[in-house]
């Protein structure tokens, strides 16, 4: 839906004769905006239509009524020749996910988030800079080419001027970036102002975001919006875990003083996990194994924060399963997730409608949490319960599962957290303690896998120019689960973790999970790129003229083609190669081509 009459449409993206935003050229309309957000939506409640999409901004970011392909190109009007590329997802899904359902009873202002699948499946990243940004951030924070995140600020207040008696409206930021803390802070600034001043305010905010620098990993950025400067640090793979918040970077005289966000993505884990502190370790195991889990919460805010907290507790491991922080019965994937004709999918669902207890009774794990409440100085803990005790409507809070944890509970951690709560320690300190525990637990589990995987690389001495140039260059050896399990006796998690339990059983189940497949594919890809870079370096260190003496023209041409292919990959930042190596590779190609007959030189030198 286009902007209302009061909006002054920004020039459309992709206009013929102008730089496309896909190239992110300097001055391209909305190029910098697109690095952070796909679009901004406003959803309101209509007495006749129910939830309705009132506004989408920028005005050329149109949504679809039906599911379509991964990229939709449409004429902006019958008389125009301009084509516009825009986010592809259903209007109805955005509308339903942007409002709490009738069971939540949210009054006042509420913030929550959702995650929605792109219609038509996965797309390729549009911007060249996106690939560079993703290669530098931790894998758990990379953009998802097949999903969008929706960050919602919902307001419901009494209003006698409205027929229904209530003002109900949501402001939604749609992005591919999982920066929940940043976008929540941004919504806290712009949503209250928008509800008062409407479209002109939204236009000004979008224009300011269009001036922001790209979210480059490792950089601390100052992001001005509505007279406030948000200072954020974009995480990098080079960052040390649990590092301190970024210091103000050379802007001591900046007025107004920046509002420093300690993280763009980390939630208050302790607050999120308060009702389940006694079972955090079991929930960590369920996440590690990719088990299907339903989180039934009293509101979208509680459900979305719990789901995001659960999926983040595996860091630095990438969460490779599907997850929906807030999910409704109106979602287009409702039938897919609730069918009983096949095993439940590897999904973590956050819901608020008790109807899901009946619909998803066949799911192996259901976490029912009540209203945030304290009992004395200690949080009221949910209890472990058998799935057979599930009731359709009056189900009490609890973790309904037949799963038995492989590892013993860390009682010392629980005592430290509860003692900190009794002594009124700040929540961020308790969150840091909990996050460090989960980080160390995940690292203790992953380090043996990393060590074994590293042992599968060919030895450095075997990567010689002559072997690399042969028909059977050194390759990565296959991962053998039995060999790995035998190695745990001397190099297992017991070296870095004090927890006792059935680590072998946990690894065996992990091998069957989507997270092992995702971790292995990523590590194998990185190792293959490293090996290819070593191959290129070995070739560049060889005396190529001696090698060519007894080689046929076919073999020499084959070398040129292989070198060029690797050079292209290296220049595209897909191989970790030094610039000096690239220069030598170009020189080698020139030397080899000059040694060939003139007719072959013409063929190889042609564009």
From TrEMBL:
<dbReference type="GO" id="GO:0055037">
    <property type="term" value="C:recycling endosome"/>
</dbReference>
<dbReference type="InterPro" id="IPR024224">
    <property type="entry name" value="DENND6"/>
</dbReference>
<dbReference type="InterPro" id="IPR037516">
    <property type="entry name" value="Tripartite_DENN"/>
</dbReference>
<feature type="domain" description="UDENN">
    <location>
        <begin position="38"/>
        <end position="521"/>
    </location>
</feature>
<dbReference type="InterPro" id="IPR001194">
    <property type="entry name" value="cDENN_dom"/>
</dbReference>
<feature type="region of interest" description="Disordered">
    <location>
        <begin position="1"/>
        <end position="24"/>
    </location>
</feature>
<feature type="compositionally biased region" description="Low complexity">
    <location>
        <begin position="1"/>
        <end position="19"/>
    </location>
</feature>
<protein>
    <submittedName>
        <fullName>Protein DENND6B isoform X2</fullName>
    </submittedName>
</protein>
<keyword id="KW-0344">Guanine-nucleotide releasing factor</keyword>
<dbReference type="GO" id="GO:0005085">
    <property type="term" value="F:guanyl-nucleotide exchange factor activity"/>
</dbReference>
<comment type="similarity">
    <text>Belongs to the DENND6 family.</text>
</comment>
<dbReference type="Pfam" id="PF02141">
    <property type="entry name" value="DENN"/>
</dbReference>
């Amino acid at each position: 839906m286009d902007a209302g009459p009061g909006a002054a449409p920004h020039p459309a993206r992709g206009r013929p004769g102008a730089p496309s935003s896909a190239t992110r050229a300097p001055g391209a309309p909305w190029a910098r905006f697109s690095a952070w957000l796909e679009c901004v939506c406003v959803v309101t409640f209509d007495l006749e239509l129910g939830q309705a999409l009132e506004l989408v901004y920028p005005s050329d970011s149109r949504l679809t009524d039906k599911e379509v392909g991964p990229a939709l190109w449409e004429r902006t009007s019958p008389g125009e020749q301009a084509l516009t590329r825009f986010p592809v997802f259903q209007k109805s899904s955005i509308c339903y996910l942007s409002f709490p359902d009738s069971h939540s009873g949210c009054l006042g202002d509420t913030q929550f988030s959702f995650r929605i699948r792109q219609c038509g499946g996965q797309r390729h990243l549009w911007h060249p800079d996106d690939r560079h940004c993703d290669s530098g951030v931790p894998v758990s924070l990379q953009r998802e080419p097949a999903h969008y995140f929706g960050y919602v600020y919902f307001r419901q207040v009494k209003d006698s001027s409205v027929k229904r008696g209530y003002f109900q409206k949501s402001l939604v930021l749609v992005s591919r970036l999982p920066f929940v803390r940043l976008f929540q802070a941004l919504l806290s600034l712009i949503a209250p102002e928008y509800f008062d001043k409407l479209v002109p305010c939204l236009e000004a905010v979008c224009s300011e975001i269009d001036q922001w620098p790209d979210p480059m990993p490792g950089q601390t950025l100052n992001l001005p919006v509505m007279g406030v400067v948000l200072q954020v640090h974009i995480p990098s793979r080079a960052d040390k875990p649990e590092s301190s918040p970024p210091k103000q970077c050379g802007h001591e005289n900046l007025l107004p003083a920046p509002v420093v966000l300690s993280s763009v993505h980390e939630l208050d884990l302790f607050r999120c996990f308060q009702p389940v502190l006694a079972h955090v370790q079991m929930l960590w195991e369920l996440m590690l194994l990719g088990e299907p889990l339903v989180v039934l919460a009293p509101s979208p805010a509680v459900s979305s924060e719990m789901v995001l907290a659960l999926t983040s507790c595996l860091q630095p491991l990438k969460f490779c399963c599907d997850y929906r922080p807030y999910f409704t019965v109106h979602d287009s994937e409702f039938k897919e997730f609730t069918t009983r004709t096949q095993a439940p999918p590897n999904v973590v669902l956050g819901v608020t409608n008790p109807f899901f207890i009946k619909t998803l009774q066949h799911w192996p794990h259901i976490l029912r949490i009540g209203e945030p409440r304290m009992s004395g100085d200690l949080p009221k803990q949910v209890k472990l319960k058998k799935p057979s005790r599930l009731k359709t409507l009056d189900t009490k809070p609890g973790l309904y599962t037949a799963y038995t944890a492989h590892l013993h509970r860390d009682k010392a951690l629980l005592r430290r957290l509860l003692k900190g709560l009794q002594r009124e320690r700040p929540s961020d300190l308790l969150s840091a303690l909990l996050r460090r525990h989960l980080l160390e637990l995940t690292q203790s589990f992953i380090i043996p896998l990393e060590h074994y995987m590293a042992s599968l690389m060919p030895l450095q001495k075997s990567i010689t120019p002559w072997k690399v140039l042969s028909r059977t260059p050194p390759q990565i050896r296959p991962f053998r689960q039995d060999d790995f399990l035998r190695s745990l006796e001397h190099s297992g998690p017991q070296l870095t973790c004090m927890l006792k339990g059935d680590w072998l059983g946990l690894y065996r189940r992990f091998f069957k999970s989507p997270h092992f497949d995702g971790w292995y594919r990523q590590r194998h890809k990185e190792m293959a790129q490293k090996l290819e870079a070593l191959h290129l370096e070995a070739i560049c260190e060889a005396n190529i003229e001696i090698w060519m003496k007894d080689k046929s023209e076919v073999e020499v041409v084959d070398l040129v083609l292989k070198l060029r292919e690797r050079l292209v990959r290296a220049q595209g930042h897909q191989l970790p190669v030094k610039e000096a190596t690239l220069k030598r590779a170009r020189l080698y190609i020139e030397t080899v081509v000059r040694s060939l007959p003139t007719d072959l030189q013409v063929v190889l030198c042609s564009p």
